[in-house]
Amino acid sequence: MADVAHDLRPAATADNRPVTFRGGLFLPRTHRLVGFAALVALILLWQAASSFGWMSPVLAPSPGEVIDALKRMALSGELATHLSASLVRLAGGFAIGGTAGIAFGMAIGLSSLVRSPGATLVAALFPIPKIALLPLFILWFGIGESSKVATIAFGTFFPMVIATYGAVDNVDRSLVRMGRSFGLSSFAIISKIILPGALPGILSGMRIASSIGIVLLIAAEMIGANEGVGAMVLAAGNLMQSDRLLAGVVVLSLLGLTVAGVIGAVEKRLLAWR
Amino acid sequence: MQLIADHIAHAYGPLPVLDDISFTVGPGEVVAIVGPSGCGKSTLLRILGGLEKPQAGRALVAGAPPAASLNPLTFVFQDFALLPWRTVEGNVRLVLEGHGLSQAVVAETIRDVLARTGLTDFARAYPKQLSGGMRQRVGIARALAARPAVLLMDEPLSALDAQTRELLMDDLVELVSGEGSAEALGMVYVTHNLDEAVRLADRILVLSRRPGRVRETVTVAGDRRARRSDDPELVRRARELWELIRADAAEADRELADVETING
């Protein structure tokens, strides 16, 4: 009997057609140029609206006028004065609030004794709009820098506590068990297992806390400061100097981008293993 | 050094999981523990390794650990438990840190255990860059770096595919087939896989379903290096073991949901 040939090659017929590809939707891709192009398009549209008189130059100056205002402020040294005042407040407040938040979040995450009262306090205090406490801080610390730094510190403290606590809680328990099984000390388990394991969550918390810090910085400067980007924006608004006002907004946008960029660079370096 | 389970019993709340377990494992000896799901095998291993306190009985050691042992009772975990932010070398280094060892000794130990586990070329790799089998080799290398007297293996091959399991089993056989000196490695090997048990063990403790009691102790004679997975005699022994636990395993399967709920 003749062998039956099992030919696995495709039989070409006129009816052959390719299987429809259905795997391409929602794939993560980076479209950096598209994002940049959208920003440029928006600025061009804004410039066109100003040039063709569609928008009032007093209420909405053109991008060119905003850039001119920015240049003038930079050359006169005014921008440096305001920006440096803001940066000092933001750095001081964020350093105090962030450090304390990480420490308290670690304590809540590691100790059940701290967790019960700590988690309750955080839940009770976190929803308070922190800027509402600025008058109280002014009473406590005076109208100077301390009250503004305290507002930023208080505002950044809570998101850092919550992020750190969550991150510590999410550290793979099997890694902690491994550390215990090899007789690692509590300090070694915290410093070599829990802290590095919680770092991604802590850095994510820093992104949120830094944004909150900038919002509080500006609010605090608008309420009680002569120097600082917030004070500059408020003064420009009061004097109907919309070009200077928008120049301040651009500075704030760049400040936010820079802080996010710094945290991103730290993430890239410390979390390269991911 | 000997590890002794002395009438160990344990319960999670109202649920008894282990009852009166006693056995000894000495240098160069492999004791496998098999039994149906939820019979307390892993709990027993954690008690033996000092990670959990038994409600009754004791885990004891007798004799001196090997010279320069950093962790006489050392675990190898089913899920590898590697630090993803450390390289292979860094994961091994973790158990050598904090003991006051010189850099030269640390480097030599790392070099030695990576060579013994075939990882020399992967020293700088991160766990995520390795296959499951290679990750478990890192787990074994890390355990060996601590110079243990007894390895406590918690289903170390169950997360691996069949081919990788076979390769790693060969390595484990070599690891515990030393000269039988006082410094030879002892092993407690918890597994669901009866073929692994008969391939590797000198004695197999068959636990009953919850609460786990030693239902039978099966001795496997002969040089384990000469054993082959497809050896008809070993296949027969594995089948005998299965017949011993089959009814319990079926019953335990029905009960398992309750146990997992209580254990959280």
Automatic annotation (TrEMBL), chain A:
Domain ABC transmembrane type-1: 83-263
Classification via Gene3D superfamilies: MetI-like
Database matches in InterPro entries: MetI-like (IPR000515), MetI-like_sf (IPR035906)
Membrane association type: Multi-pass membrane protein
GO cellular component: plasma membrane
Subcellular location: Cell membrane
KW RNA-binding (keyword) present: no
Gene Ontology biological process terms in this record: alkanesulfonate transmembrane transport
Keywords noted in UniProt: Cell membrane, Membrane, Transmembrane, Transmembrane helix, Transport
Segments traversing the membrane: 33-55, 90-114, 121-143, 149-168, 180-199, 205-224, 245-266
SUPFAM superfamilies membership: MetI-like
Protein family membership: Belongs to the binding-protein-dependent transport system permease family.
The protein's role, per its UniProt record: Probably part of an ABC transporter complex. Probably responsible for the translocation of the substrate across the membrane.
The protein's name: NitT/TauT family transport system permease protein
Organism of this sequence: Chelatococcus caeni
Automatic annotation (TrEMBL), chain B:
PANTHER family: ABC TRANSPORTER ATP-BINDING PROTEIN, TAURINE IMPORT ATP-BINDING PROTEIN-RELATED
Xref: SMART domains: AAA
GO molecular function: ATP binding; ATP hydrolysis activity
DNA-binding in keyword set: no
Superkingdom assignment: Bacteria
Pfam families in alphabetical order: ABC_tran (PF00005)
Keyword entries, A-Z: ATP-binding, Nucleotide-binding, Transport
All residue ranges annotated as the ABC transporter domain in the record: 3-234
Record-linked InterPro entries: AAA+_ATPase, ABC_transporter-like_ATP-bd, ABC_transporter-like_CS, ABC_transporter_ATP-bind, P-loop_NTPase
Record-annotated membrane-spanning stretches: none
Record protein name field: NitT/TauT family transport system ATP-binding protein
Keyword Transferase in annotation: no
